[in-house]
Amino acid sequence: VQLQASGGGLVQAGGSLRLSCAASGRSVSSYFMGWFRQAPGKEREFVAGVSSSGTTSYADSVKGRFTISRGSAKNSVYLQMNGLKPEDTAVYYCNGYQPGPGNYWGQGTLVTVSS
Fold first, then answer.
1. So what's the pLDDT on residue 100?
2. Which of 3, 85, 7 is nearest to 39 (CA)?
3. N or C: which terminal CB in the chain sees fewer CB atoms within 10 Å?
4. Measuring CA to CA, which residue among 68, 91, 87 is closest to residue 5?
5. Which one-letter DSSP state was computed for residue 88?
6. Per-residue pLDDT tens over the stretch 68-89
């Protein structure tokens, strides 16, 4: 599975961005798909995830502001980020996981939120 993340950029505080993750090589419809982020000097952390059945989960820091969703073809996943804050600045990584096939990471896309 190859994951290609895109959509990062520079935005002012309070603004919005939509990240996209396109999967290729294998269907990820049965995978748990997630977004993680890593800020400078910090460890990578979970942001949001969506199960194969559509159940979503979020880190407390982004609840009510971010929304994760799957594309209609189930081989893509999106992260709609609203109300961005400077502390959301990080490299965002797409992740796909299924027991057995494994754990896959995209290359990351940089989100910078200016105050």
1. 83
2. 85
3. C
4. 91
5. G
6. 999 987 799 999 999 999 999 9
